[in-house]
Design a protein that fits this description.
The protein is mainly alpha-helical. It has helices at residues 3-33, 36-67, 73-101, 110-134, 138-163, 166-179, 185-189, 198-233, 235-274, 276-303, 305-312, 318-348, 352-377, 379-404, 411-434, 440-461, 466-481. It folds into 2 domains: 3-406, no CATH class; 414-475. The two termini are 28 Å apart. It is found in: Cell membrane.
């Protein structure tokens, strides 16, 4: 695996681990200070923000990464910034309209405010991050996440402690999103060219609009279950379900996102500079590295579900989380593999229409399965529906991506991490049996056992070609000491 991939991945990984840990601490604090019904305000507002940001803004973010390369970057960034401001105006008008419409459906107008503000905050933060990612500035990118996580933890904890209001919690978290990028704005924007370029605008719109539809449908497939749970089972059930799913995302999705933040730009550059075959080879390396991280993360969440729920959630949330974590681990693994690998095949082949088709299939499957399974199975039905809908989406994505940009599935890159993960899982189960009880020391000890066992398994199987890297690092250290 190439040294730029390792170097950038490590920067992104360590830059995301700190903020991810702070997010976990925030979840632990918020679920101890808020009742499930109050926490539902944050769950539903964040879900609405993900959906709104995907439909209105995320296609512009992806256009930054796709086109803001080399000498064209100032012109592309200037054009996309103007489009971003226009979309922000659209979002604001929708928020105002919903303030008048929601009371007719029995919902308070403050719901429109919190959802709209959270959408604008999310899209602003994501846009600034994409500019830094396109410019290959992983350090500033990571620092922005750290500042956001610290602010969200501090402001959100103060807000929920002082008021007990879920709506105040949402506004405090949104404020953290707005404030975090400000210290980095000077280096971020550089000198964009804001001159009108109709041809470039049309090119971005042609690329972005199908992608925007696909991203909105894709996020609908991921977030619709929160709204359906709230509709069918009530706000309290949504408050219980939300942090369970988000913990799965934070423990698996965030780690893999760190990898793809480094991997995908390398594939784009390989495609632009060396052609299709070079990009395919880079994506094969990316797949191997994804599996090295994805499989043990999912297995660890499933096997240590009770211990993780005990530490990371308040007493009212723990039983639900422990029951659902295994299903959440599987659905998040499938979602991650689809998002961070096969969907990128459609993006590299500029087949955003194919990506929209996959997202539509996933959205329909999510809606149908949730309405079928939740009334019969409750919250477990929502988790089962997530596994089934993500399976359908993954199969559709594999089939469609092969028509535009075929991506390999190297058997060794899948089987070796799977074998190392099996070694880790057996070690955890043995340690749980030998060390009964439930306390922080035991849980930390189990994490140590998992890490040591997986590290040994990786070296034994040479998963992700890590054995060579390990011995190279040992040899380098010996050279420094000699």
């Amino acid at each position: 695996m190439s040294s730029p991939l390792y170097r950038h991945t490590l920067i992104y990984l360590f830059g995301r681990i700190g903020p991810a840990l702070l997010n976990l601490v925030a979840t632990a604090i918020f679920t101890r200070l808020a009742a499930p019904g109050d926490y539902a305000a944050l769950v539903l507002s964040v879900a609405a923000a993900q959906l709104g940001s995907a439909g209105l803004f995320q296609w512009l973010r992806m256009s930054v990464l796709r086109y803001a390369v080399g000498d064209d970057a100032p012109r592309v960034i200037g054009t996309i910034t103007r489009l971003y401001l226009a979309q922000g105006l659209v979002c604001t008008l929708l928020m105002v309209a919903l303030c008048f419409l929601l009371p007719a459906f029995g919902l308070p107008w403050i719901v429109a405010i919190t959802c709209g503000v959270m959408t604008l905050a999310q899209s602003w933060f994501d846009f600034t991050q994409e500019l830094q990612r396109a410019a290959l500035q992983p350090v500033r990118y990571s620092l922005s996440f750290a500042v956001r996580a610290l602010l969200a933890l501090a402001l959100g904890s103060a807000g929920i402690y002082l008021t007990g209001s879920g709506f105040v919690l949402v506004l405090c978290v949104a404020l953290a999103y707005f404030l975090a990028p400000i210290p980095f704005m000077g280096a971020m924007f550089g000198r964009p060219d804001f001159s009108r370029d109709p041809e470039l605008t049309r090119r971005i719109v042609r690329y972005g609009l199908p992608l925007g539809l696909a991203l909105m449908l894709n996020n609908l497939g991921v977030t619709a279950d929160r709204f359906i749970v709230a509709y069918l089972l009530g706000a309290e059930a949504a408050g219980l379900y939300g942090p369970t799913v988000e913990l799965g995302r934070q423990s698996i999705f965030t780690l893999l996102q760190s990898v793809t933040l480094a991997c995908y730009p390398l594939a784009i550059r390989a495609l632009k500079n060396h052609g299709t075959q070079a990009a395919v080879e880079q994506m094969a390396k990316n797949f191997g590295f994804l599996m090295v991280i994805a499989l043990p993360a999912a297995a660890g969440l499933a096997v240590m579900r009770v211990e993780i729920a005990q530490i990371m959630l308040g007493p009212l949330f723990r039983d639900t989380a422990a029951q659902l974590f295994p299903l959440v681990a599987v659905s998040t693994l499938l979602l991650s593999l689809n998002t961070f690998y096969f969907i990128q095949g459609n993006q590299l082949g500029e087949n955003t229409g194919g990506q929209a088709t996959v997202a539509a299939i996933a959205a329909v499957a999510t809606l149908v399965l949730n309405f079928l399974l939740i009334p019969a199975m409750g919250l477990k039905g929502a988790a089962v529906a997530a596994v089934l809908s993500q399976s359908v989406s993954l199969v559709a994505s594999i089939i469609i991506s092969r028509r535009s940009f075929p991506l390999p599935i190297p058997p060794a890159h899948l089987l070796r991490p799977a074998a190392a993960t099996a070694i880790m899982t057996l070690a955890i189960l043995a340690a749980q049996h030998a060390w009964p009880g439930m306390n922080l020391v035991r849980t930390l000890g189990l994490f140590c056992v998992a890490g040591l066992a997986y590290g040994a398994g990786v070296l034994l199987t040479d998963a992700g070609d890590m054995r060579r890297l390990f011995f190279k690092a040992v040899k380098f250290k010996k050279g420094l000491l000699s």
